[in-house]
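Re: folding output
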Amino acid sequence: MRTATVGIVGLGYVGLPLAAAAARAGFKVIGFDVDHSKIEKLKTGRSYIGAVSDEALQSVMADGSLRATSDFSVFAECDVISICVPTPLTKQREPDLSFVENTTRAIAAYLRKDQLIILESTTYPGTTDEVMKPILEARGYRSGRDFFLGYSPEREDPGSAGFETATIPKVVAGDGPVAARLVALFYGAIVETVVPVSTIKVAEVVKLTENIFRAVNIALVNELKVIYGAMGIDIWEVIEAAKTKPFGYMPFYPGPGLGGHCIPIDPFYLTWKSREFEVSTKFIELAGEINVSMPHYVMSKLSEALDTRLGIPLSQASILIVGVAYKKNVSDVRESPALKLIELLESRAADIAYHDPHVARIPKTRKHPMLAGKDCIRLSRDSIGAYDAVVIVTDHDGIDYGLLANHSRLIIDTRNAMQRNGIVCDRVVKA
């Protein structure tokens, strides 16, 4: 058993896997969250995150390696505190650091000498030094002398069986050489590989760079999808052929838009910060515009197909959305393009239902609160046949695509799911 007590603030898709990994590494771990329902589930050994099974959770809870609480006064017991809270955008697409700021203030109230405080939340360069550090130093303590401050960007990939917290290389940095060494030592005890960088700002930008890279390339193939579609060319066939080139090409795939906490949000953290330096981010902002427009494109393809194939206007159509999570095989609906698409269709008076094997009920979200409480329907021959069109938005593995093919009148496929599952159906329209 290691002697340090570790606090993990924010027990979501990043924090809970980190807490479990730290506990397995031999640390005594205390998980903090303001959501009391999460705390109660954890106390009974029930996980709400796919990356942490009930069995894995129960093993570290049973031996006392991990406990969960909403009592922030327990921060005083922690030698290391890792902050894994949300960093969303405001309606004006500006950084909302309220979760980071409030957490830092709570830590500052119980700050003691020699604690190591690490931010993992994705943010713009300068957040750790310019926002967190002054709050922590407000009572007279000094970073690098009385406490130590660091940054290490999260790198979780929900739904991926090939990666887990302990095997994903961890970028680390600290405020000064001692802090940098402590951050590297801490994560080195949990993960297989640590990647030290020279400054906290570099570490903050690494995470932004990773997600901007994906956002820009997805925007490119989304734009190509629209262009090639107008020419009668299948973008997915093009990509499959292009990726046979063993050099100079990396495949990215189009879709109905971007979802999740990272890719739709992170680029705008950099564009906001860039204004301070009077530097434009035209390329990044254009990519954002293209990706944001994709639900509108899907709706237009659906409307056209309903009209030309079934003679039904969108305002009189009943539509079944298949998949509302932001990516396959997860239950996370944050920033999901499916929610935007549902709202767009309902604004046109279409009758909408959804099926998602991972989302029994749509939870309350910041952008789409009116959809909260909408229940999943079961897929069956009769339920599918009751709708004029099916729109595949999220291509979960657990969906019976053959059933969809056999009993639907029209399928709008935004993920090429039917063809990838070997199903040939003349009622499929790719979008």
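--- second protein (sequence, then structure) ---
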Amino acid sequence: MNVKQRTIQSEIAISGIGLHTGKIVNMTIKPAAEFHWYKFKRVDLEGQPVVAVDADNVTDTSRGTTITQNGASVSTIEHLMAAFVGLQIDNALIEIDGPEVPILDGSSKIYLEKLLEVGFVDQEADRDYYEIKDNIAYVEKDRKVEIIAMPLDGYRLTCMIDFNSPVLGSQHAAISNISEFQNEIASSRTFCFLHELESLLNHNLIKGGDLSNAIVIVDKEVSKEELDKLSGLFNKSVEVANEGILNNIQLRYQNEPARHKLLDMIGDLALVGRPLKGHIMAARPGHAANAAFAKKIKAQIKRDRNRKHTKVYDPNMTPVYDTVQIMNILPHRQPFLMVDKILELSETHVIGLKNVTMNEDLFMGHFPGAPVFPGVLQIEAMAQTGGILVLNTVPDPQNWLTLFLKIENARFKNQVTPGDTIIFHLELLEPIRRGIARMKGVGMVGDKVASEAELMAQIVKVKGN
């Protein structure tokens, strides 16, 4: 049984202080459509720019994860993202009136409680998992960071931290299934070392830190003068507890720092843009490594998508539609009919074929001394192939037209010349809604990619029919 995507049932308002800015931030988390994933909208800025949670948008990982897009940034996103992933929420829009997500208690606990209060609603589309098929590894030798993703039918995470600290030592945390996040990981708070705290204070950072939202590890001798100074800064009596931490808070778990690193990792891996299936094992992870690893997974997703299209089809195989049948569906005619055969057709993909021959009229004017099949006509042929897929969803397709709305990310990688056969593979990026289809198309000559693009088209009824 396929698991459906889900979003929240109704919107949630959350306010709190940003850890580093020290300013009150107001957020409204809203339900979002299928395949939306997580996006922020900076409602305090002109034009209310949207920032997508995507590894390609990461601009800073020094004190949390910051993403930037359309001239706007949002920082410290990881604890909220972990709550979404931990509750297996697929789609949400976060309207925010400042540059930083509220720190709250330094964990995901309050976010998780608020989300649970409103509940969830299942959507029509199946959850868009990316399943790890082969090991994906990331290593930073100088920092002794290692992260590896391995195949698993589920989402399991294991984390080890080792700061060469007499107080922390080595700590491990793990969950065998993402459903354990709520009870085992969500309430684990962020932590820092006392010397880091002093440095941040000296540089006028952590303005929102009030010693209630972080575990402070004391890994050196501290004088009474230093403790008095901290007491004055935070307006609170500060001492070193037996566990080697400041007495500002009590540990929720003996290995709370390791559990929080696991929380951060879950939140940061939301940057992949899809829910994951696999076992992630990490040694000494941090925001920079997590973001780099998310990028590596994204790159693998792209390779996998392209690998799907490298299947070499036999041009002589029995087609689903031949040229005459195609002309019963598409309104195009020579010299502008660009598809000769349909080799495969399903509800979500189509494979079409175009034979490029020297006797086509266009070669009289397009580099006649060195004929090349134009890239724009490759896109047209790709679109006509996609048109077969879209028109296959309506009765009497001859009474409908497919019209371009948008072409994005078009690339031309290898020349196509007379004598070549181009195989076009188009796949829906999301379900067709209100006659609008978004497709990813790839044109192959043999085992080489000739062209690729993302297309958006709309089907409209022919006037008079």
